[in-house]
Write a structure and sequence with these properties.
The complex is a heterodimer of chains A (387) and B (537).
Chain A (H helix, E strand, L loop, with lengths): L8 H36 L3 H11 L3 H18 L1 H10 L1 H20 L6 H31 L3 E3 L5 E3 L3 H6 L4 H25 L2 H32 L4 E2 L16 E2 L6 H5 L5 H19 L3 H22 L2 E3 L9 E2 L7 H28 L6 H6 L6
Chain B lengths: L4 H40 L2 H35 L1 H35 L6 H30 L4 E4 L4 E4 L2 H5 L2 H31 L4 H36 L1 H7 L12 E8 L4 E8 L2 H7 L9 H27 L6 H10 L3 H5 L13 H9 L5 H31 L6 H9 L3 H15 L4 E3 L3 E2 H4 L5 H32 L5 H17 L13
Antiparallel strand pairs in B: 1-2, 3-4, 5-6
Helix pairs in contact in B: 1-2, 1-4, 1-6, 1-16, 1-18, 2-3, 2-18, 3-4, 4-6, 6-7, 6-15, 6-16, 7-14, 10-11, 10-13, 14-16
Classes of the chains: A mainly alpha (387), B mainly alpha (537).
Chain lengths: 387, 537
């Protein structure tokens, strides 16, 4: 099949790098508010009815939202197999914790209101809280570690190996900068969840969500700025030191990598990428104003803009690196040497081009059908069928 | 077998996969049964069918959520525990998984929320479409997963690339239309339909025995028995198709399932029962059915099916060719940029058997240093566990045939005996509820245990595929999964029982309204025979 040569290998790689970003952002925009709502649950809702209102704002959509995460995993597997192999096994115990959260959360949604017992419901409420808060934090910690570099190397056979024992591997993730990144992602998603609740609920619950959301926005903006400063002064970046062959075979060991300069050198080389952090700050500021003024739809949109800007800024800053290695920089994975084959990337692009528009269309339709606030009256009236 | 890293990784994968498959078959089948019931409701407008849709829909939901939740584990474990596998075949294997997400999982997950929350927000037809989209999504999902799994059994449309040290896709078409994958999909999906049918039949039978919800129970039995009968027949026919494709794609698996040690003159006999003994390489107390194996496996009277001993000698030759390929690969790697033409030629001649050289990695760091003894040991390793395969397969097949009998019986009583079922048959229907799950798990056991010692047949040995984690890592997650999954299972079962006990939610107002409309219609048409339109009760 010659068809795949229609698009150059290096172009396809950049497209798939961008699509990886789109999937991560799609995940953060949709499942992000589920996680935020979960983390907010104990603080914005005091009575059982209030809690059910909060839970039912995401009740019909969390399943679809969670698929962004699963599709993200599948797309990394298909388009960036070395990344999938190294990161999932390298972050083994952290992945297990995230997995546990993603298993317990669906079950909590579905089962919480199926029994009347107070203990039963309280336990599931805590499960929902943990299922939202823990991954919201850990995703940021993971991103922080990616920026710092991860201790792995590849053998000649391209077998991923990790250095350090298991305790170091899990606790070793909790480095100060990574924790700061975790705080940024946690507070960002908390703000997003608050923006969602401000749109979907009313009265006391919405009021509490707005107040917490504004504080979360402030923390997110401060943490994000601090992380940028830290990157500028305290953390070495990575750079390719030999001539890259952007359409060469996907063997990470073929490129040479040095630890030179700062990650932020990217902003001197490609000044236009400044737009990403700008989107982050402007988005947060306007979302906070929206929360304060009680605006609904626009607040959620500004919050989405902020998330899009913050996540893109990480990818754009690191380009072409995807997963740098601290112990053996030459093993680092980059856009040019960690992708699938030319043909697989092309086929997957065709599939994505067919199905992504469909997915967006029917997802939009579902949200439209479910448009409107969830009220205490709804929950009381449909006590048997709602979550 | 000593329990090292590879064995622990296998144990964890097997455990989580089998657990996941406790929920999948019911999702596959019940989603369709529920959609069928809702179709009848939309067509006839009779409230009882809506009640049925909602009741079975609730049970579907309790089951569905765990299928989704435990499915995430499956997708992530390839990267977590099988990182070399992920690197080595991700270029091919990842694609169907990603397409599954794009085409199927998004569909079912997005609409399943509307199915439960959309009753008042959608028109009848819209809600029906949603129900069918959920069913369609679930089944598409199975299709792509089985295309991925089919490739592990019969790796077509791919070749090894020395530059990237991995398999790369050469033909997407061949991967998708892999005969093993297609046969497997229909076999697995049908097995799911049988599972759901047996479940609906059993729960309905319980209601009849308890003398409650009889209206709902009778109709449910009628739907389940007809759907179940067609599916049970399909499972067996497509299982036979899988056997036929195994006879030329996975000869060793087939020989092991049949405990066929020696190549027999065609057409080979089928061993009905016996006690296979791997040490002695023979099957004790065997009862043979002449000709049967040859006919099932090759659909001819003249083609031979190779026995295990011959296949081991064949594997030995492949290992030797694999060593030649490995040697050429090393030459290619050392001379990157200026590869000698003969090395490339030799590699291409033998590349097909490269995976067999990797079997030696268990015994020696560099396959080129292997002794004769080690080559013999590695060849021996290509025999999977014969005894468990032999018996797992036979129990599965026996169950498969018995489902046909059960479904045929209930179909007959429902269609021709005015839905009257003797009490013994109802007790039996309740008692057999767990059996389709047993059959399905045994089926997966045969498919995957029979694939050993490979993760990808003839391409990548299992021992090489695992991540280099520490034993402590594995023990932590293994313990985590066991505790976590046990708790979830107990909760799930208790909710299932609670909602089955509770029974359907009776929409009294709507039933009365329908009854009034119905009687009004009858008064307008005095000639209409009344017997056929009154409810069964």
């Amino acid at each position: 099949m010659i068809l795949f040569e229609l698009i150059d290998y290096d172009t396809l790689r950049v497209i798939w790098w961008a699509l990886l970003g789109v999937l991560l952002i799609g995940f953060a925009l949709t499942d992000g508010f589920d996680m935020g709502v979960g983390a907010l649950l104990p603080f914005v809702a005091k009575t059982d009815v209030e809690r059910r209102v909060v839970i039912n704002t995401v009740g019909p959509v969390w399943e679809g939202n969670q698929v962004w995460f699963i599709l993200g995993g599948g797309a990394i597997f298909a388009a960036w197999p070395p990344l999938y192999a190294v990161s999932f096994s390298g972050f083994y115990l952290a992945m297990f914790v995230i997995l546990a959260a993603f298993i317990v959360r669906p079950v909590a949604f579905k089962y919480r209101s199926k029994r009347d017992s107070v203990t039963w419901r309280t336990r599931w409420d805590w499960a929902l809280f943990a299922g939202g808060a823990v991954p919201a934090l850990l995703f940021g910690v993971a991103v922080g570690n990616v920026l710092l570099g991860v201790p792995f190397h590849l053998t000649e056979d391209l077998m991923p190996m990790y250095d350090g024992n298991f305790a170091v591997k899990f606790l070793g993730l909790l480095r100060p900068f990574a924790l700061l990144a975790g705080v940024v992602s946690f507070s960002m998603l908390l703000m997003h969840g608050a923006a969602w609740l401000s749109l979907k609920t009313e009265g006391e619950v919405a009021g509490r969500a707005r107040r917490i959301g504004m504080i979360a926005g402030l923390v997110a903006a401060g943490g994000y700025a601090l992380a940028g400063f830290w990157l500028a002064v305290g953390i070495d970046g990575f750079a390719l030191t030999n001539d890259v062959v952007p359409n060469g075979p996907s063997n990470p060991l073929y490129s040479e990598v040095g630890r030179e300069g700062s990650w932020l050198a990217a902003y001197a080389a490609r000044p236009w990428i400044t737009v990403a952090p700008l989107m982050g700050f402007v988005g947060i500021a306007l979302a906070m104003r929206g929360l304060q003024a009680g605006r609904e739809v626009s607040t959620l949109l500004w919050s989405k803009l902020a998330i899009t800007g913050i996540i893109s800024s990480v990818g754009l800053t690191m380009f072409p690196f995807i997963l740098p290695s601290t112990v053996d920089p030459n093993s680092s994975l980059t856009v040019w040497d960690a992708s699938s084959s030319h043909q697989t990337l092309f086929i997957m692009l065709v599939c994505a081009a067919i199905f992504m528009p469909l997915i967006l269309a029917y997802t939009a339709w579902v949200y439209k059908v479910l448009w409107g606030k969830v009220t205490e009256a709804d929950v009381t009236k449909n006590a048997d069928t709602l979550y | 077998m000593e329990f090292g890293l590879v064995e622990l990784s296998r144990l964890q994968f097997a455990m989580t996969a089998m657990y996941h498959f406790l929920f999948v078959p019911l999702t596959l089948g019940l989603s369709i049964l529920v959609a069928v019931m809702e179709t009848v409701y939309v067509m006839t407008n009779r409230p009882i069918w809506r009640q049925m849709t909602k009741f079975w829909g609730t049970l579907f939901g309790i089951n569905f959520v765990l299928g989704v939740a435990t499915g995430i584990t499956m997708e992530f474990q390839f990267g977590m525990n099988w990182s070399y596998y992920s690197h080595y075949v991700g270029d091919i294997f990842g694609a169907p998984l990603a397409i599954e997400g794009l085409m199927a999982f998004f569909l079912e997950a997005t609409f399943v929320g509307l199915f439960f929350f959309g009753w008042d927000k959608l028109s009848k037809v819209q809600h029906l479409v949603v129900a069918w989209l959920v069913a369609l999504g679930s089944n598409f999902s199975a299709l792509w997963i089985l295309i991925a799994n089919g490739w592990m059994q019969n790796p077509v449309g791919a070749e090894f690339n020395p530059d990237t040290m991995r398999m790369e896709m050469t033909s997407f078409f061949e991967v998708v239309f892999n005969e093993v994958a297609q046969a497997k999909f229909v076999h697995t999906a049908s097995a799911g339909y049988v599972t759901a049918s047996v479940f609906v039949l059993g729960v309905s039978a319980l209601y009849l025995l308890q003398d409650r919800h009889k209206d709902l129970a009778r109709r449910s039995i009628a739907v389940a028995a007809s759907f179940g009968l067609a599916s049970a027949l399909s499972v067996v026919v497509l299982g036979d198709e899988s056997g036929y494709s195994a006879s030329h794609t996975q000869k060793m698996k087939l020989a092991a399932i049949e405990a066929m040690w020696e190549t027999e003159p065609a057409p080979a006999s089928f061993t009905l029962v016996g006690i296979p003994d791997k040490e002695a390489r023979e099957t004790h107390y065997a009862i043979h059915i002449p000709w049967a194996m040859g006919l099932i496996g090759t659909r001819s009277l003249t083609e031979e099916i190779p026995g295990i001993n011959d296949l081991v000698s064949e594997a030995e030759e492949k290992i030797r060719r694999g060593i030649i390929a490995y040697d050429a690969l090393m030459t290619i790697r050392e001379n990157r940029g200026d590869v000698p033409a003969d090395a490339r030629f030799i590699f291409e001649q033998n590349a097909e058997d490269l995976g067999f050289a990797f079997l030696l990695k268990r015994y020696v760091e560099d396959p080129r240093d292997a002794t004769e003894e080690q080559i013999a040991l590695a060849a021996e390793d290509t025999i999977p566990g014969v005894f468990p395969l032999f018996w797992a397969f036979r129990i599965m097949v026996a169950l498969g045939f018995s489902f046909i009998a059960v479904m045929a019986y209930f179909f007959y009583r429902a269609s021709f005996r005015n839905m009257q079922f003797p009490r013994w048959s109802l007790y039996a229907a309740v008692a057999i509820i767990p059996t389709p799950w047993l059959a399905a798990e045994l089926g997966w056991f045969v498919a995957e245990f029979g694939r050993q010692p490979w993760t990808v047949d003839g391409v990548l040995p299992t021992a090489l595929s695992a991540s280099h984690l520490s034993i402590a890592d594995l023990l932590i997650t293994l313990a985590g999964f066991v505790i976590f999954y046990t708790v979830l299972f107990v909760i799930e079962m208790s909710l299932m029982v609670k909602y089955i006990r509770k029974g359907p939610f009776q929409d009294v107002e709507e039933t009365h309204a329908w009854q009034a409309r119905h009687e009004a219609r009858l008064r307008q048409m005095p000639d209409e025979p009344t017997a056929s339109t009154t409810p069964a009760e």
